[in-house]
Amino acid sequence: MAMENMADKAQATGEEIYRLVERLYPICRSITGDGVRQTLAILREYIPLEIHEVRTGTTVFDWTIPKEWNIRDAYVKDADGRRVIDFKKHNLHVVSYSVPVRQRMSLAELKAHLFTSEEYPDWIPYRTSYYNESWGFCLAHNDFLKLADGEYEVCIDSSLEPGSLTYGEYFIQGDSEDEILLFAHCCHPSLCNDNLSGLAMLTLLARELADADTRYSYRFVFAPATIGSTTWLSRNQANLSRIRHGLVAAVLGDPGKLTYKKSRSETAEIDRAVEHVLKHSGEDYEILDFSPWGYDERQFCSPGINLPVGRLTRTPNGCYPEYHTSADNLQLVTPAALGNSFALYRELMQVLDENRTFINLSPNCEPQLGKRGLYRKTGGYKDVENRQLAILWVLNQSDGMHSLLDIAEKSGMSVRELSRVADELVSCELLKLAGT
Ligand code: ZN
């Protein structure tokens, strides 16, 4: 595809991802409950996600599936009956997993349950209390300062009852049983970059890969953070050995630079492939060493699981001021950034698919390229030179021990251009796939 067409396509895809983010934004999600079900139902309009429900009380490794949380309404009313804090205006106003409350209390009593950010006084912070039964409200610090003394009416119309944890999974069969795992968490309420950007981008990537002819199979998992990835891993232990590469996708809609956090081994093929794609993308990027905090890569990279799973974001979680606040909204994410993230993920999937290892079938001195139509007829063109160089690199290094990514790293060329000439060399019977 010509460069202009690629840019147009990334822009159009970015706009489509953005529209999906817009649709998902108002839903109040948590680690369980109807918000997650509604979200996955919308994603099913794009891809045939399989929905799984795991009952409250089920043991998943060292964890237990919690009670299911749902919420209908919540508010704090002042003495005049005005809603001074209103869940209907923004779902971040309620601490996620708040137990039901219906009480009158003084401002002093109420304050013990209020959370604000003095650093960003106009934004509502995001707070959760999943594993400790309590309740609370979040509000802009400037609104908090306006609360007058007096009696308040507090209502949280929620339920915390036995139910289930919901996650979605979509498997695309490729030519091989080897899988690439792509994971996004789906548990955040109205937060665009942290959560929705990853969910929406992966959904459109899945739709595209479903129509592509690929060597790898792909497995998309959309589950709540921590408890969701732990649940999925505990239920799929028998098949984990098929996962050759994996990525946790989140925070892909802000205008910041692309940031990759390496897998636990730091030298897995996914780590090298991402670095290769970023290097050849012409974009600004950063590579981070592995660390045992962050998103669900913590579970995929725990010592007993130890999968080659990295995390590819734009600005990492916690490193932008809007993170986990009401300012992580539809203004923070842009179609351009979403489209650019999509194009990068798509390119990465292509590079992983094309990264193969070959054996030179004519390894004694260089084979005569001219008689096979592989040698340049006229000199002077830069792309001709590149193609020539790519042929020589692939022939020289293809001893069954060096993959195209190895050759790319050594030569400075891209896997995509090496792959093109490798396919030509296979048709001229100068090369064969290792292991065949
Ligand atoms: Zn988060």
Structure summary:
The chain is an alpha/beta fold. The longest helix is centred in the first third of the chain and has 22 residues.
- The fraction of residues in strands falls at 15-25%
* Biggest sheet record: 8 strands, mixed
Mean pLDDT equals 96
Give a count of the beta strands, DSSP E runs of length 2 or more. Answer: 19
Q: Based on Cα principal axes, name the global outline.
A: elongated
Q: According to CATH, what is the class of the largest domain?
A: Alpha Beta
Distance between the termini: 31 Å
Distinct ligands: zinc ion
Q: Order of strands across the widest beta sheet?
A: 1-10-12-11-13-16-14-15
The helical percent reads 25-40%
What would you say the CATH architecture of the largest domain is?
3-Layer(aba) Sandwich
The Rg value, from CA coordinates, equals 25 Å
The CATH homology group name of the largest domain: Zn peptidases
The tally of structural domains comes to 3
Structural class: alpha/beta
Total helical segments? 12
According to CATH, the fold-level topology of the largest domain is Aminopeptidase
Features:
436 residues; binds zinc ion; Glucose Oxidase, domain 1; 3 domains; Arc Repressor Mutant, subunit A; Aminopeptidase; alpha/beta
Report on this model:
The chain has 436 residues and is α/β, with parallel strands linked by helices. The protein folds into 3 domains: 3-65 and 164-354, 3-Layer(aba) Sandwich (Aminopeptidase); 68-161, Domain of unknown function DUF2172 (Glucose Oxidase, domain 1, 3-Layer(bba) Sandwich), CATH 3.50.30; 357-433, Arc Repressor Mutant, subunit A. The chain has 12 helices and 19 strands. The protein has helices at 3-24, 34-43, 107-111, 141-144, 192-210, 227-235, 269-281, 297-300, 335-354, 382-397, 404-411, 415-427; strands at 50-55, 59-60, 63-64, 68-77, 83-86, 101-106, 114-115, 137-138, 151-161, 164-172, 179-185, 217-223, 243-249, 258-261, 285-288, 309-313, 357-360, 399-403, 431-433. The strands form 5 sheets. Strands 1-10-12-11-13-16-14-15 form an 8-stranded mixed β-sheet, sandwiched between helices. Strands 5-4-9-6 form a 4-stranded antiparallel β-sheet. Strands 18-17-19 form a 3-stranded antiparallel β-sheet. A hairpin with a 2-residue loop joins strand 2 and strand 3. Helix 1 (3-24) crosses helix 5, helix 1 (3-24) crosses helix 9 and helix 5 packs across helix 9. The chain is elongated. The model has no long low-confidence stretch (mean pLDDT 96). The site of zinc ion (ZN) has 4 residues, from loops. Residues 188, 194, 317, 324 line the site of zinc ion.
